[in-house]
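Students often ask why we bother encoding 3D structure as a string. The short answer is that it lets us treat folding as translation between two languages. Here is a chain of 80 residues written in the first language.
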Amino acid sequence: MSIITVTATEMQNNFGKYLHFVMDGTEVIVTRNNKEVGRFVPKDASVSYLTDSLTGLLKGDYDLKHEKSEGLTEKYESVH
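And here it is in the second language, the structure alphabet:
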């Protein structure tokens, strides 16, 4: 997968152009004041484990440290 970097102003002024890049499989990194502020990632390239790890955590009360620890323990328990 190819990656390009654009400024927020460039993205704003030419959104359609960069949307086509993403649709064609290119990741677009958006910067503002030389700092990365976001990424547009093609749907097929999105990281499923990230979305899977967030599922269910966004609703209700939860303890992030506990959830992370529990998830890592379940995932890597068989490795020990």
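Translate back mentally: The beta strands are 3-7, 27-32, 35-40. Keep this in mind for the problem set.
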